[in-house]
Amino acid sequence: MGLRREPTARQVRLATELRRLREATGLKAREAAALLGVSSTQINQIEYGYSGVSEKRLRSLAAHYSCMDEPFIDALVAMATDRTRGWWEEFRGRLPSAFLDLAELEHHATYRFDLEFLHVPGLFQTEDYARGVFAYRVPALPHEDLELRVGHRMQRRAVIDRPAPAPYEAVIHEAALRIRVGDRAATRAQLLRILELSELDHVTVRVIPFDLDNFGGAWSAMMLAGGAVPKLDTAVRDAAHGTVFIDSEAQLQAFRTLFRKVEAASLNPERSRDLIHHIAKEL
Fold first, then answer.
1. What is the rounded distance in angstroms from the CA atom of residue 277 to the CA atom of residue 37?
2. Do 159 and 109 meet the contact criterion of CB atoms below 8 Å apart?
3. How far apart are CA 174 and CA 73, in angstroms?
4. For residue range 153-191, what is the model confidence (pLDDT) as tens digits?
């Protein structure tokens, strides 16, 4: 099997976890290679996601690294042996890889938290709303590229509609609900879409109202996706240079704490729906 030219974020995450396990033991790559009976080059290729790893080799490495966390090892094996070719593959080579990586992350997530201040979360967006967001890009996107992004965003909504969906909670600032990305009709349709989805058993929507006192956290929009085990959770943030996937345990714990802090300050789901209804009626 040839080397991967561009590993996916999921493949890189597996590689990163294997490298962390080795480094925690104090072993050098060449020492791990000797234990496995391969070259240090092969270990490096595995640890940077350019080469896959079999279940047998992965479990052998975990044993050499004295990792006794069986659920974690099983989760890594599932990542290593997964051959899923999801709907996002049709966009490969047509959209930046981060779009595909995000869709794959959502597909495998065991739960999903979103925190948004200026835009409606992507999984809630209507086609008109998504088109309005992408149309504001500078420099402007060619029509074909814009429609590819809209199409991709619409297909991402499958994780909400599929059988046995993962729990999804979104905390949205009132500003995001009132900003008219489209015209009045499109904005109202977007609000009604949020209300419709908020009725689903696995979806929770909370709103941070404008009149909330002592709220200084409106700077940290993020997404938190649950892994098969907590060690494999991932935070996602948008940065000036693109989408960033965060897997450091210290940072993940900070994002979990932040989300729960903002969640506690937001309106409960019933009062949130009432506020969204009120904003929609004003349009």
1. 64
2. yes
3. 42
4. 999 999 999 999 999 999 999 999 999 999 999 999 999
